[in-house]
Every structure is written in structure tokens, then in C-alpha cells.
């Protein structure tokens, strides 16, 4: 199978690495890819949001499967264009990708499917904002109704910060979604979905705030770990049966079946799992950790999903142990990140010792003419490490990241720490 991966981040680098481990995958290309992907696969400078360019590349590469990583091309209908060209594509149609592209649409689907989620209101006009804020909070949850790479969300007890964010979004012409705050530990559950067939992957937890101890502004994600030692397997079953399957069935009922990766972001509260958000693609940085533990051929799973044969596919098998992603971010991220600095120490994997269980994935990098690796984005690199348990995976990741030098860069030192220290517990059900 020849596979074309669309995207350029660490999630796509992880997908490429996992596809390389699939003996059924004979060739991999990525567009536009990144310098890390370029070391192991062919990369082509094609705009992921350009339907003609992506279809042209898929034909030129003779792709048997196109895997679309990011949400923007999905919302723009690139998967529809690839399928219309007769090529199997992993990723939902534009109509189904609205589950991420419009939070109001997602709320409507959840209401119809009877799925628990935060109470919400959409605000379209600045004149409605104050009265709406008074009906919510504290704590206020103010979201951009459209796509915002994780940075459109402000969760705050400060009413003026909530108001400023809402007003700024409205000024930019973006409808604002106000939500009641959902309490409880957060879980990201990724499910392969083909119509009404739902196959969950390992549950993971993201760390969205920039600073240790969940401080500072929201980011696209500063790190993740899997599995979750504090989450009983029955809760994963409950999420699949009471959240993901009803939503998949409702999408089928509406004539917009979901095909691809449905990402349920949940808070596990006193009343059980409640949905914080749905995304229409693999999450970043959770995917990097989840795929590090996959012991099944990824290409076969994605192809089965894309071709409507998931129900007949072998379910995924997982390695024992734990995996963790730690994101190395550029100075000033998640504001305007500093770019163009030389990175050293990212190359190579030690043959033995703790670093041997860690790999470096590229997220926002570029190559200078002389071959030097430069920072080129907010999230620059990911270190993904495995271990017999989460404590060992953490030790391996932090050992490896300590050897990487990038001026002004920062990373969280507490990814997975609360779980290792047994500080996460599920609330008693009421
Ligand atoms: N982990 C957050 C996201 O992928 O949106």
C-alpha cells in the first residue's frame, strides 16, 4: 500500500513513523511534511488546503490511501475531492467535519443524540455579550465557534478577561460560544469511526495550558500521556457506548456519516463523562503518545476505516507500558513565537540508556541552506518516550529533551506527573 499523508506537524510525523512500522505499507509520501518527515519519507511542497494540488499529488504518487491529518483541509472538503477522484481517503467529508468546524453544529448533534455536554449559547452581536456572560460563570468558558487551533478558548474566573476575549472574537467577525464550565479530569478518546462502527484507541490526557501546574494561557497542547492509570476500562466503554456511538448514529441519521478519526474530548464529572469538544481528526500531541504504543499495522486500520470495512478489521493491539509526549515550544509561544533559531541535539537516538526509548518528532522546523535545523513555529519539537510505566516513560522523555538546545525555548516539566503521583481521581457519581 502506498500512503500519502497530508500535514506538516508532529502528529503527521508520528503517523508516518507508525506507517513505516506497518509491513503492508510499501511507500510513504507527505505533503508538505517537515524536515523530520523528510528524513524517512518523500516530502512534496503541496498546499494541504488545495484540492486540485492534493488530488494531483495523490495521482502522481499512485497513492492507495490518503491520510489527512489537520482539521482545516477536512473542513474545506479535501477528503471529498480525494474520494471523488476514486482514491481511498482517511478523513471525514466537509459535511461531517462540521462536528469540529462549528461548535454550534456539534452541540446540535449531541442534543439530538442525547449526549451530555456543557450548556451553551452562541453570541453573534456585541450587544448580546454582557447579558449572556451574566447568565454564565464564573467560571466563564468563552470559545471561538470556528477553528482556532486550541487557542480560541479562554477559561477564566475573571469576567473582564472573558468579556475581552468574546469582544475580540466578535470584532474579528467570529461567533462566540459561551459554555458552562465542566468539572472533572479530562480525557481524550480517539475512535476510528466508519458510519456506525466505532473502534476506540487508548485514552490519553492532553496538557493544554502553557505552564506547569496548568497555569497560563491555553495552547495547542504542551504534552500528553497514555494510558490513563486512573481511568477504569468501564469508563472507556461508557464513553464509547453513551457518547461516541450515539453521535456516530446521529451523523448517519442526518445523512452525513462520519468516516475517519472522531476525537471526543471529555470531562469526567459527578454525572459521568460529558463532552467538552469533538474534533474530526487525530489530536495533537496525544496521537504521538498513543501511536507509540500501537502494536498493530496502522495502514491496515486506516485503510479499513476509509473503505468502510472497519467492522471486519482486526482490532488494534497495544504494547504494555506507557508513553508520553513532551512538547518543546519556542520563546513566546503561545503568543507570537520567536522563529529562525538554530536547534541542536535533536538528531539521533542513543543506542542504549534512557534516551533509547525516546524519539524526536518535528512539529515546527525548517532547514537552512547549509543544513542547519531551525525553529519555524510555536511548537517546535516533540519528544515521545515509552517506558514500563508512566514514571519510566517520563524519565526517558525528560532525559532526551534535556539534550536539545534551542535559545529561549520552554517545555512543561509536569506532563503526566499528577497521574504518577496519584493526584487524579474520578469524582463520586451522583
Ligand atoms: N489535543 C488538542 C487538539 O488536538 O486539538
UniProtKB/TrEMBL annotation:
<dbReference type="InterPro" id="IPR000115">
    <property type="entry name" value="PRibGlycinamide_synth"/>
</dbReference>
<dbReference type="Pfam" id="PF01071">
    <property type="entry name" value="GARS_A"/>
</dbReference>
<dbReference type="GO" id="GO:0006189">
    <property type="term" value="P:'de novo' IMP biosynthetic process"/>
</dbReference>
<dbReference type="InterPro" id="IPR020560">
    <property type="entry name" value="PRibGlycinamide_synth_C-dom"/>
</dbReference>
<dbReference type="GO" id="GO:0046872">
    <property type="term" value="F:metal ion binding"/>
</dbReference>
<dbReference type="Pfam" id="PF02844">
    <property type="entry name" value="GARS_N"/>
</dbReference>
<keyword id="KW-0436">Ligase</keyword>
<dbReference type="GO" id="GO:0004637">
    <property type="term" value="F:phosphoribosylamine-glycine ligase activity"/>
</dbReference>
<protein>
    <recommendedName>
        <fullName>Phosphoribosylamine--glycine ligase</fullName>
        <ecNumber>6.3.4.13</ecNumber>
    </recommendedName>
</protein>
<dbReference type="InterPro" id="IPR020559">
    <property type="entry name" value="PRibGlycinamide_synth_CS"/>
</dbReference>
<dbReference type="InterPro" id="IPR016185">
    <property type="entry name" value="PreATP-grasp_dom_sf"/>
</dbReference>
<keyword id="KW-0547">Nucleotide-binding</keyword>
<dbReference type="InterPro" id="IPR037123">
    <property type="entry name" value="PRibGlycinamide_synth_C_sf"/>
</dbReference>
<keyword id="KW-0658">Purine biosynthesis</keyword>
<dbReference type="InterPro" id="IPR011054">
    <property type="entry name" value="Rudment_hybrid_motif"/>
</dbReference>
<dbReference type="InterPro" id="IPR020562">
    <property type="entry name" value="PRibGlycinamide_synth_N"/>
</dbReference>
<dbReference type="InterPro" id="IPR011761">
    <property type="entry name" value="ATP-grasp"/>
</dbReference>
<keyword id="KW-0067">ATP-binding</keyword>
<comment type="similarity">
    <text>Belongs to the GARS family.</text>
</comment>
<comment type="pathway">
    <text>Purine metabolism; IMP biosynthesis via de novo pathway; N(1)-(5-phospho-D-ribosyl)glycinamide from 5-phospho-alpha-D-ribose 1-diphosphate: step 2/2.</text>
</comment>
<feature type="domain" description="ATP-grasp">
    <location>
        <begin position="107"/>
        <end position="307"/>
    </location>
</feature>
<dbReference type="InterPro" id="IPR020561">
    <property type="entry name" value="PRibGlycinamid_synth_ATP-grasp"/>
</dbReference>
<dbReference type="Pfam" id="PF02843">
    <property type="entry name" value="GARS_C"/>
</dbReference>
<dbReference type="GO" id="GO:0009113">
    <property type="term" value="P:purine nucleobase biosynthetic process"/>
</dbReference>
<dbReference type="InterPro" id="IPR013815">
    <property type="entry name" value="ATP_grasp_subdomain_1"/>
</dbReference>
<dbReference type="GO" id="GO:0005524">
    <property type="term" value="F:ATP binding"/>
</dbReference>
Amino acid at each position: 500500500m502506498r500512503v500519502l499523508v497530508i500535514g506538516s506537524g508532529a502528529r503527521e510525523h508520528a503517523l508516518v513513523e507508525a506507517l513505516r512500522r506497518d509491513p503492508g505499507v510499501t511507500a510513504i509520501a507527505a505533503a508538505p511534511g517537515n524536515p523530520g518527515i523528510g528524513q524517512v519519507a518523500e516530502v512534496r511542497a503541496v498546499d494541504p488546503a488545495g484540492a486540485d494540488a492534493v488530488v494531483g499529488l495523490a495521482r502522481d504518487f499512485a497513492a492507495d490511501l490518503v491520510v489527512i491529518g489537520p482539521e482545516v483541509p477536512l473542513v474545506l472538503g479535501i477528503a471529498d475531492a480525494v474520494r471523488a477522484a476514486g482514491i481511498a481517503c482517511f478523513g471525514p467529508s466537509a459535511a461531517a467535519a462540521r462536528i469540529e468546524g462549528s461548535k454550534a453544529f456539534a452541540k446540535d448533534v449531541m442534543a439530538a443524540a442525547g449526549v451530555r455536554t456543557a450548556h451553551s449559547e452562541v453570541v453573534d452581536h456585541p450587544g448580546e455579550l454582557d447579558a449572556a456572560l451574566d447568565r454564565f460563570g464564573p467560571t466563564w468558558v468563552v470559545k471561538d465557534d470556528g477553528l482556532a487551533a486550541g487557542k480560541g478558548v479562554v477559561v477564566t474566573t475573571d469576567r473582564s478577561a472573558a468579556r475581552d476575549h468574546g469582544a475580540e472574537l466578535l470584532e474579528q467577525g467570529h461567533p462566540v460560544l459561551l459554555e458552562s464550565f465542566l468539572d472533572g479530569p479530562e480525557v481524550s478518546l480517539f475512535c476510528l469511526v466508519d458510519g456506525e462502527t466505532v473502534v476506540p484507541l487508548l485514552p490519553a490526557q492532553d496538557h493544554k495550558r502553557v505552564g506547569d501546574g496548568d497555569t497560563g494561557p491555553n495552547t495547542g497542547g504542551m504534552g500528553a500521556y497514555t494510558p490513563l492509570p486512573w481511568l477504569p476500562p468501564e469508563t472507556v466503554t461508557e464513553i464509547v457506548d453513551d457518547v461516541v456511538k450515539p453521535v456516530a448514529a446521529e451523523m448517519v441519521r442526518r445523512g452525513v456519516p462520519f468516516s475517519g478519526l472522531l476525537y471526543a474530548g471529555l470531562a469526567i464529572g459527578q454525572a459521568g463523562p460529558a463532552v467538552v469538544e469533538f474534533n474530526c481528526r487525530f489530536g495533537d500531541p496525544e496521537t504521538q503518545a498513543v501511536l507509540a504504543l500501537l502494536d498493530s499495522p496502522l495502514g491496515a486500520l486506516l485503510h479499513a476505516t476509509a473503505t468502510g470495512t472497519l467492522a471486519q478489521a482486526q482490532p488494534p493491539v497495544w504494547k504494555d507500558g506507557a508513553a508520553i509526549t513532551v512538547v518543546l515550544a519556542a520563546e513566546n509561544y503561545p503568543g507570537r513565537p520567536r522563529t529562525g533559531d538554530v536547534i541542536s541535539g535533536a538528531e539521533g537516538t542513543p543506542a542504549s540508556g534512557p534516551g533509547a526509548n525516546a524519539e524526536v518528532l518535528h512539529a515546527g522546523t525548517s532547514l537552512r541552506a547549509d543544513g542547519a535545523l531551525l525553529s519555524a513555529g510555536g511548537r517546535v519539537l516533540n519528544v515521545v518516550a515509552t517506558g514500563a510505566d508512566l514514571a519510566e516513560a517520563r524519565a526517558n522523555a525528560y532525559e532526551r529533551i534535556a539534550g536539545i538546545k534551542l535559545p529561549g525555548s520552554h517545555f512543561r516539566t509536569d506532563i503526566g506527573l499528577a497521574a504518577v503521583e496519584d493526584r487524579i481521581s474520578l469524582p463520586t457519581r451522583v
